[in-house]
Model the fold of this input.
Amino acid sequence: QVQLVESGGGSVQPGGSLRLSCAASGITSNIARMGWYRQAPGKQRALVANIEQYGTTNYVDSVKGRFTISRDNAKGIYLQMNDLKPDDTAVYYCAYWTYRGDDYWGQGTQVTVSS
Done:
């Protein structure tokens, strides 16, 4: 059974930092791409950043220079978020896509940026 578990969310003041983690288990197919999405209240879920199998990364313009996506050898991914802004407030989800066409999602972790 596939399971993605996010951690590291919380509440910070503007300008603060958080590091999100996503631990994956049960994925037996080759992973093509991993990423982070977020959903703010009243908005659709949207891409934050993703990382391809061979390391190519992609970021939404609003987080470039502030967020960094990375991965480890155990299929985990991370999102280092610096200089957080109130507009970054959302539920953050990790997601994995396999070459077979399957996609898997975590349950989400809340990030709140407020003074």
In short: The mean pLDDT is 95. The first strand starts at residue 3 and ends at 7.
